Amino acid sequence: MKLIFVYNAKSGKLNALLDAGHKLISPKTYQCSLCTLTHGTFSENKIWKEFRTQSSIAMEFLHTDEFEKTHPNKNFSYPIILKDDNGVLSTFIDSKTLNRIDALEELITQINSLLISKPA
C-alpha cells in the first residue's frame, strides 16, 4: 500500500516559478491547498519533510499532468490523496477535505488517523 499525493499544479520549472509568484502575490487565490500545506513559497515545509521521511508508509508525489499521464482514465478533483493497493486506487483524502484543512499539523493528524482506521 502507498499513498499518492496529487498536487493541483503542473510539473516543470516554469510552472514552479509561476506557482511561487502566485503564492507571493495572491496566496489566498492559489489553487492547490495541498501545495500550500506542504510547501512554503520556495521549498518544502520542514515539518512535512520530517513527517514524510520518517513515515513507514510509501508515498508518491505527482502533479496533475504527471498523474494523468500514468492514469489517463481516472477522473478526480485535485488536489487529492489516493490510496494505491496493488494498483487499485481509492480516495484517501478528497479535495473538499484538503481545502478545509488550515494547518499542516491537522493534515498530518488526519493522515495518521486514517491510516489507523483504514489499515493496509
Describe, in plain words, how this protein is organized in 3D.
With 120 residues, the protein is of the alpha+beta class. The protein has a single domain, classed as Glutaredoxin, CATH 3.40.30. A four-stranded mixed beta sheet has the order 2-1-3-4. A hairpin with a 2-residue loop joins strand 3 and strand 4. It is globular. 18% of the residues are buried.
- Characterize the overall form: globular
What is the straight-line distance between the termini?
6 Å
What's the number of structural domains?
Answer: 1
Query: Would you tell me which CATH topology applies?
Result: Glutaredoxin
Organism: Winogradskyella immobilis
Protein name: GTPase
List keywords for this structure.
120 residues, 6 helices, 46% helix, alpha+beta, 4 strands, GTPase, Glutaredoxin, single chain, four-stranded mixed beta sheet
